[in-house]
Amino acid sequence: MKTALIIPAYKPAKELVALIERFLSDPEFVPVVVDDGSGAEFESIFSALPAGVELLRHAQNRGKGAALKTAFGYVLESLPECDLAVTADADGQHRYEDILRVVATARANPGALVLGSRKFEGDVPLRSRFGNGVTRHVFSIASGVKVYDTQTGLRAFGRDGLRAFADVPGERYEYEINMLLTAAQGGMPILEEWIETVYLDDNASSHFNPLRDSLKIYLCILKFCASSLIAFAIDYTLALLLKSLTASWPASASLNFSVIVARLVSATANFFINRHVVFKGNESLGKAVMKYAALAAVVLGLNLALMHILTALGLPFALAKIIVEVTLFAFNFVVQGKFVFRKKH
User: Fold this and answer.
1) What's the confidence (pLDDT) of residue 292?
2) How far apart are CA 289 and CA 177, in angstroms?
């Protein structure tokens, strides 16, 4: 069987041709290059690709995700001899030796998604080091799977992975994080093979926009936070309503009743949304309920304590409620994602 070497290329560097030439000497590999609307000025590079390369073209730039999915569909339909696919970038950041090692690991672990992960050591551009660090931790919480390099373009997987990833939403750089989320949620093993961190000319050839495309990536992950915001809306609205309805009660009793009842209602809604929609947890219902109840009790105690402290300092109830909820948001999200809905690995 063979391996499809998939390279999405938008305004590629000359290193693309040199990389392809090395693989053409190996009969295991079938290079598939997608020209993602690079334009006439880059035609010389694509024309220099040697015979034997499957060259696919987009008339206009559609994005890295769209280019990858075009290649995936082509391999599934036209290259039945390829039981494995490996994706690599066209900017020269993935070395020949590293691609071979990632493919070897994928062949040794059928059904897995193997990532060529960088350790970000040495002279690494700040935008790459910082961006990957933030995404790494949020992805771990959101999916329950630890991945060191969430933004690597060097990935190897089998035909089952091709079929699964061909339907993943996303047209540009957000597609790659969606691939990881799909694999994690579907129970596909995700393995990492360390590769060399290579940046040419301070990563000048990269078309990854640190503001625009990072925002898309984080918005894809931040959908996991949506249920917490819904719970906050329920809790905040109900607490204010109950506080108004019990205004004639003693202040302490009114505050306790409003906070406790609002928390119970919002926590119930939060549990079912998080379990079935957000984290898609693999913990049993009974254990998840017990762990969630324990967490809810801790959060409730902290909520009450902080509310009493802040209102005693003279803050209005509504403002104190916002401060408390924002403070507990991160704590609640991390604990739910890592412990409540996840079995121990």
Assistant:
1) 87
2) 29
| Residues in the chain with pLDDT values less than 70 | 120-133, 142, 198-221, 223-224, 280-282, 342-345
281-307 CB burial, b ≥16 within 10 A, e <16: bebeeeebeebbeebbeebbeebbebb
Q: Which domains does the chain have, with CATH numbers?
A: 2-210 (3.90.550.10), 224-340 (no CATH)
CA distance between the termini of the chain: 33
Beta strands in the chain (DSSP E): 2-9, 29-36, 54-58, 82-87, 113-118, 155-158, 190-195
Please give the pLDDT value at position 205.
47
Supply the pTM of this predicted model.
0.70
Instruction: Yes or no: say if 158 and 110 are a contact pair by the CB < 8 Å rule.
Output: yes
Following DSSP, what letter does each residue of 139-166 receive, concatenated?
A: HHHHHS---S-TT---EEEEHHHHHHHH
3-state class of 57 per DSSP? strand
User: Residue 246: how many CB atoms within 10 A of its CB?
Assistant: 17
pLDDT at 202: 47
Place of tokens 């691939």: 179
Q: Give φ, ψ of 247 to 5 degrees.
A: -60, -25
The pLDDT of residue 62 is 94
